[in-house]
Structure formats: structure tokens, C-alpha cells
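Model the whole thing, not chain by chain.
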Amino acid sequence: MTMQSFNRRSLLAGASALGGASLMPRGAFAKGSLVATTYPGSWEEAYRAIVVPALKKKEDIDLELAPLFAMDQIGKAKASRGAPPFDVFILDPGPRIVGIEGGIFEKFDGKKLSNAAKLPAGFIDDSGICVGAQVVGIAYNPKKLPAPKGWKDLLVEPYVSRLGLTGFQTTFGTASLIELSKQFGGSLTNVDPAFVELKKVLPKIAAVGLPAAMPGLFQQGQCDVMYTNTQTVATLKGKGIDIEFVKPESGAVAFYTTMHIAKGTTETANAYKYLDLVVSKEMQEAMTKSPYNFIPVNKDVVLPPDLPMKSLDEMSKYVVQDWAQINPLRAAWIEKFNKEMAK
Amino acid sequence: MSITLAAAPETGGGSLRRLLRAEEWQLALPLGLAFVALFVAPLLLLVGTSLFDDDKITQPGFGSWAKFFGDPFNYKVVADTLLLGVKTVCTTVLIGYPLALVYLDLPTRLQKVLIFIIVLPLLLSVVVRTFAWIVVLGREGMINQLLQSLGVISEPLRLLQTELGLVISLTQIEMPLMLLPLISVMSRLDPNLRDASAALGASRWRTLFTVIVPLSMPGLVAGCLLVFASSTTAFISQTVIGGVRLIYLPLLIWQQSLVVYNWPLAAVASLSLVVSVLSVIAALSWLGRRSSGHLHG
Amino acid sequence: MARRRSLGDISYGLVIGGLAALAVLIIVTPVIVVLMTSFTEGRSLRFPPTGFSFRWYEQLFDATQSRQIHKAAGNSLEVACFSTLFGVVLATLASLGLARNRRKMARIADNFFMSPLVLPGITFGLAALVYFSTLGFRPSLDLMIAGHLVVTMPFILRTTTASLSQLDPALLDSSHSLGASWFYTLRRVTLPLIAPGIAAGAFLAFMASIDNVPVSLFLSNARTDTLPIRMWGMMESTLDVRVAAVSGVLITAAFLLMLIMEWTVGLTRRMRD
């Protein structure tokens, strides 16, 4: 093979790739376009199946979804200063506060939404709008283990040797470890008891991994019990995996999911249209159905029977954590988790 | 003989030769410029970022450096990261080098097949690969099932989320990076050399260590460099297959940059990784040049 | 040569053969696992697969259901092709300029060009994003090509330099002393001899770009995401079997490409020479 022929080949490949790429829909914008983040997994699936086609039909807006965990969204947005990589964020309480402090959200005006009155009071503020809630508890494999009762069970047999553990990098991980700590005398701002107890059983624990790795580890039987949110359980169940959700005796943790418009976006009008549609009765209703099982925020929605939480009024029955107190401590907790769990 | 020839243009050559040398050097300019714009500048920004004390990047100072190196835990992480690279290089050489030797002995047709097999790991996305290794190394995985059905073990071995498992999986992933340069150097070796060595009564082992290994050194060094560098920064494999109880620098960098947003500290951690890995690379590369200097001698 | 096989030679065959067999086993197993899984009838990535079907491939090729994957694949191909193309040109030139230069500066430059390999991709991705956005660029495929160029070019430089160091200097010197111009020597002697090295490097660079996660993660947005980013998302919480099917397609495509290269330009023959 000569140098020339190799280069020609590359050029050829490059040219055909370009040709192929130009045939793809990229760049072919409709009346409007919008880039919104979504969580990987059931959020992405639900929004892709329900909201994307509806927004196209109703407003002729092409919605592009970027699946990213809340933390990653903030990281990317902060890195890109002033030129936001996406127009709308979807966030958990912790990252939401980081975002507000970092000044990366456009000031939100609820009056621009036709559905604003359909939401409970306090669901819209200057920073954004609440579009749902997530519930965090324990998931286990019913074919291999009896149902655990509470957080404490995770640290005794038969659960501890089948436990999959993740750290403080996600909201559900942080929330769960705080709850675990509370069972041993800890509090919202004191997770040391959890570390002490975990350390005692550390050699027995089946897996300690990144949140993203947990579904795979669970499915292949590396671990059979873990903490996670209801949406993940619903998704995995929908895929035929043996998994059940348990509310711990001390209560499952619930937190709101909010959306925010990125500061510096050029698509503000489309962003409001998108958010208005997301909280509309039709969209909220469609997303409460199986396999998505989202908890609706629109008061007009008629609830199906199999939801973990019937309405957001029930939030009071759940453990709600104050992320303004948690956020400043989390960096140190992450470091401590590294050190305490390290081999 | 060639060493003198190669050195000739610099010492005894005429002015034309010297001019040619100058021209040759300038061939690196386009890449140099591209690197200044796309690599040096972002990195300088990174160094600049590391010289701030707080995560808001407002207080200049050496606080982040002091914090990182004031913590003995981080020394262990740096050492573990480099050790992981060394272990992966060792296993890759241990089983990769014999495969390259076998390659040399195969008929042409089978050599082609083997090349295809060697590049296979490159074709399997890093994302999917992690799933495959869960299947192979897991508690209910292939290795454990095989050993249990053979009656070798009664309880499943813990392979996933151990350094052993991680090194095994990295060995697979990095194998092409070792073998491709190795084979392209080895297959240029004169086959008569081995025959001559054998005819002189040398055993195959002796031929291997006195003839083949020294002559294949440039390829071996190139392979080791690639494997070492790649395995020390293989974030996804390290965290998914190794689990987060095994802590290497890329995990710290990821946490500091994307989870707690402490970019100054993330910058310090990555600069430490760069410096420590570069020192090993420089040593390897120096060894490689020394041995390739002997090559034509 | 009829030589009696000594104990040493037998042990050589056993040890070397055994280790090589182990190498092949380790290389091949994960690939087989993924390929088998991609033909499952089940709804999630699971091994051993249940049943046999092409349903995930059908879904993967379905334009409406897998539009995002198709788009990401197009992006990945474009980025990989162009970053490799620029990489080949720049790295080959630089390698010719530096590989035979024994001055200290040349060694430093060589190490400098190789350094992206040892810089954590995550850090470079973050540094590049901060840098590009400071300059006022928004994420685009062009930036991604630039980013990938930096991290994949060293593969080409390394293999090309290794080939050059194998080149007998006597060849070049005799070409020079026979009056051949520098450029003529380059075209007729040097390049043909190092082409396998360049090709091997280009192949590595191309695959590294196709498979790059850390740099793409930072430099992409929803409109420009690449195949591995898409797959990472699909894998993370839904264990979508299509990621195995994508691998099946990638392996087949790359395999065919290599076969075509073999038939037309003799890739493996050139590697042996």
C-alpha cells in the first residue's frame, strides 16, 4: 500500500461520511428548535416518546434531548460561561441550588405559562418550575432475597453480602446514605455514623460502584439489593428484570424535580412553550402511565392506581431533605467516601 | 556501522546536508502550531486554574496544591495509578509478546487472520466492553461458573471490583496497542537471523532473549508507552470494572471537576497525573532510544 | 534443518504457545459475549441471552425508532474521518522531521507531541471546553474534530516514528549520495517503507476517535453527540440491547473495511514486510 492510496482512502471515507451526515436531519430546523437536558433512563424514554412529538405537533419546535445527570449538566454549563450548551435544565434540589448560586439560570416568569394555575402553590419561583418528584428507597431482587424492611437491614445478612453501594455523587446516593446514617444516630448534616457502620461490614459488601454501573451489576447478579429511585426500578422491571421497590420503614425520601431556563439562551420563547407543555394535563397524564409511572404535578390529572405517591400532597408523608444544608458538606463527604471505602 | 552514518550529517556533513536537516526539522512546524493552539493554550488555562485557592476561582494562590499534596491519601492514589499502569504493561507484555512470536511463525494466511483477531478489542466500544467484563468476571459470571462446575471452588471468587479483574480487562483492551507496533517492527526482522542463531546451536530461548527481544525493542517500547498511558487514564474501565473502592487519579479528577466543581483541585490532580505519568514515559522512551541506537550497530 | 528437538525447545513451544493462546482467549471472549447478547430475544442486556432473534438489529436500523443513534453515528464517523485525516498529514510530517533528529530539542518535541496520550481525557475535555467557550465558540463538530485530533494524533506519530527508527539510514544516505533530491527520496523510499506504520497508526487513531468518551462528553451537546456518548446514556439506566447491536454493526463494518483494505492494498502484507 502506498502513502497516496491510503490518503485517498481516508479522503473517500471522509467525503462519504460528510455526504451521509449532510443527509441527516442535523441543521434542518423547523420553526423553532430547543435543546433540553433530561435524565438518562426513564426520563429520557418518556420525554422522547411523549413530549418530543407533542411539541413538534403543537408548536413546530424540534426538541433535542441531552441525557445527562444533574451534576454533569451543572459542570458543563459552568464550564461554558455565557454560551450555554443547552437551553433548559432538569435538576434535583442539590444541583438546583448550585445553579442558582452560580447564576446560570434566566429569571423565570410564571405568568408566561398558560398552565401556571394548574400547579400547586410554590411550584413556580424565580429560578424555574417544578415538573415532578422522585422517590428514593430500596430496590431488591425478589427471586433471591426476602423484602428488606428498612435501611438498617442493608447492613446485616442476608442483604449486606448482596449489597450494591454508591457514593455521594448523585442525589439518590446522597439521600440514601443520609437516611442510613440517621438510623444509627446521624442526622441530615452528620453522615459519620453511616461511615462507621459501613466500615464494619465493608469486606462483605458485594459491590461499590458508580451510579451508572449499578443497573448492569444488579442485572448480572453481582448485587441483589441497592438504593435507587422509583423510575429506575420501573424501567428495569419493564425490561423483564427481577426487581421490586421497597419503602423503608423510616420513610422513603422524596424530592422535587425542577426545570430551569439557561442564562444566555437565544431560545427563551421556545423554552417557555416547552415548559408549558411539559406541565400540561395531557403530557402529565401520559407520563403517569406504565412503564413511566411519573408523579404528576398538574392538579387536573386523574391518577392511576399503581403510583408510589398518589399526589404531591403526599410529599409530607415522605422524608424531605434540605439541600441548602447538604450542599456545602457534600464535597467533603465525597472525599471521605473515597478514603473510607478505599482498599 | 550505521550509528556513524546517522550521525554523519551533524558532524562531518557539508553545508547542504546541514540545510536539509534544518528543513526536516521544520516539517514538525504545522503540528507544533496546531498543538500550541489546541493543546498548550487549553492546558495553560488549566495551570492557571490550578493557581486558585477556592472553587469559585476568585482567590489566587497555591492553596489547591497545598491541599492536594498535604493529604497522604493522594500520594497513595498517585502510586496506585502508576502501579496499575505497570501491572497492565507487564501482563500485556507477558501474553502479548508470545502472541507476536507465534504470529511470526504462522503462514501468511493465518497471520492475516491473527491481525484481524488482534484488532477486535478496538472495535468493541468501551461502553459495551464493561458489560462484557461483568458477564465474564462477575459473581455469577463465566469464570466462576466454570470453576464451580469443575469443582475447583465452592464459593464464587471475587474477581469483579478487584485489581486482578481490572488488570485482566485492561489487558484485553490495551492488547492491540501493544501488538500492532510490536508486530510491525518484528515482522521487519530478517528471518535468516533466527535460522542463523539456530544453526549456531542456540536454543530457541537463547535466540529469543539474545536476538529477537533486543531487535524488537523499538516496537516493544512503543507498545509499552501506549499501554501504560492508556491504562492509567482508562476512567470508565477503572470505575466500572474496578469499582470505586479502587481509587485512581482519573476518578478524583472526575469527582472534583464534575461532581463537586472544584476545578482548581481537579486541575492540580490532573497536572499531577500528567507529570508522574510523563516521567515514566520519558524513562521508557529514553530506554527505547538507547536500544534502537544499538540496533544498527 | 534436522535438529533434534531439545527439552528447551519443547518448553519454549509449550510456554509461548500457551501464553499466546491465553492472549487470544482474553481478546476474543468479550467480543463473543457482546455479539451473542446482541441476538437475544430478551428485553435487556443479559448473558446468557434468551432465545435468538434479529429484533434488536431491526430496531437499530429502524429510522424512526433509532433516529438519535443514526445521527450520533453520522457525527462519530465525520469526526473520526477528519481528525484522522488531519492527524495523518500533521503526524507524518512531524515524524519525518523529528524521528531521525538526535538533538535534544527533537526528543523534547517528540515527547511533547505524545503527551495528549497521558493527559486524562476528562481533563483535556474540560480544559478544551473552557478554552473554546472563552474564545466564544459554541459546541460543534468542528471543535470536536479539533479535540479528537489532539488526542488521537499521537497514535499515528508513535507508530510512524517506530517505523522510521526501523528504517536503515544507509538506504536514505545512499539515495542522497546517488543524487536523489530530498523530496524524491521521501516519496520513493521513505514513505512507501513507513506506510504500514502510518496505516496502523491511522487505524488506531480512527478507532480511538470513534470510541472516545471523555473529550466528546465535554465538547458535544445534544445536536452533536457521538455514538459512545449515546450508547453510554442507553447503557446507564436502561440496559438497552441496541448497544450490543451497535457493537455488532461496528465490528462487522470495521471487519469489512479491513477485508477491503486487505484485498485492494494488502494491509496485513504491508504490515509484515
